[in-house]
Amino acid sequence: MSMPRWARRLPRRIALLAATLLVALLVLRVWDVQRGPPLEAWHLVVPEELRADEIDAADWAGYLAAEEAAFATVRTDVTGALEPQARLRANRYYAGSPLHPGRFASDWNRSFVLEPEGEPRGVVVLLHGLTDAPYSLRHVGDHYRQRGWLAIGIRLPAHGTVPAALTRVTWEDWLAATRLAVREARARVGPDRPLHLVGFSNGAALALMYALDALDNEGLARPDRLVLVSPMIGITAFARFAGLTALPAFLPRFAKAAWLGIVPEFIPFKYNSFPVNGARQSHRLTMAVQAQIRRQAAAGRLAALPPILTFQSVVDSTVSTRAVISALYDHLPAQGSELVLFDINRNAKLGPLLTPATEAALDRLLPPGARAWRAAVITNAGPDEAEVVERATEAGATQEQVRPIGLAWPREVYSLSHVALPFPVTDGLYGLDPDPGEDFGVQLGALAPRGERGVLSIDPDALLRLSSNPFFPYLLARIEEGIAAAEDAPPRRSADRAAHADR
Questions:
Q1: How far is residue 402 from each of residues 63, 104, 122, 311, 391, measured CA to CA in Å?
Q2: CATH architecture of 24-365+470-501
Q3: Does 1 have pLDDT greater than 70?
Q4: What is the pTM of this model?
Q5: Which residues pair with 339 in a beta bridge?
Q6: What is the DSSP string of 29-57?
Q7: Measured over all CA atoms, what is the biggest interatomic distance in the chain, rounded to whole angstroms?
């Protein structure tokens, strides 16, 4: 029996409809971006940086030399070539701006090494997030330094300079830089001192990917502990198709289509503008991490991962909190890992304005039942109390243990945010109560703008998101436990050699 004519034509019609929709979406995309602000020098100048194969062949000194060359390009082709209308106090690339990183005692956009007094007891590698800079983990790094550890904060390729740099980078470049930083860490302290990796957001995904790769690559030094802060294990589905939105950018007239956001650059140590390629590379990295987790789980190797301590806000508009559990923790055997979740402020006066989904988020994330890892929730001590407690369930148990931690929610804060976790409230740039001894040109975390629309040169929404963590002392105390445990443990390096020899 022959197929009806309409059935034979159906695939063609579906393909035609899909092509029509794609064209319509691209036309809409072109119309939308053409309405936006023009591209500036920092959206167009792409400094030359080392690529993955070059980074793998480089040493620390060579990497820093390439980094300096990239910053020299920015000084010459961006800061030194600004049009008069771009010479604004709110522009970090204007040399006369109070936000210009060149005027600070330390430019935290660059890679750094924090040396302890005396011989290092261990070493930590710090990996910042996407659009971010090494600044984001300086407080954690300084804590390690005070405990006698060497801290290496690497500036990942395409960061700290200009947003345009993100238009050409790949996640493989970032992972190569991670390998370089670990090589330098081991070269400085030797094979027998403990090694920690601390990653924030995209940097946390890189730390995890490195540790997973090291399970079956004896050429990679194996870390003794991972600390993941707001880890980018999963992101929105939109990022999967973000590359399509940049298709019109192949025509020079529509170059703005390569950008998801063209925003004033008023933060000294972070990009505000965001290119499509940044979203695409983040999605590629999360897919690679998830695939590597599944592969190593199927091979029975996840028990050899170092203990993972993760800090994550229950509500996070940048990464998927659900993916942290479903794509990572649910695959882990009992090997000493822990997940710390920061709940919403259930004492907030804004309670009636919170969405029902937000109020129920914690119960959906952690349903009752035993787990192979420790779960801790930082939440209100009671329905009418600002003080918080730690509600912890040990691995394999179901009974919850409660202990006070001596901290409380600020009255005006109803939740943490993705960007807040690695910063204390005293941070000079992002803190709610910034240190008066630090001057970065603006105190973004302390601003509470009120007034008429259209007055500020930036979007007020950028100032409403919480940018520091009132529970940062707890975060440091938990990291401190890992430092103490590493110093008391026998050298892991010999165990690494034995593990490789047994394969």
A1: 47, 44, 32, 18, 5
A2: 3-Layer(aba) Sandwich (3.40)
A3: no
A4: 0.90
A5: 310, 375
A6: HHHHHHHSPPP-HHHH-------HHHHHH
A7: 86
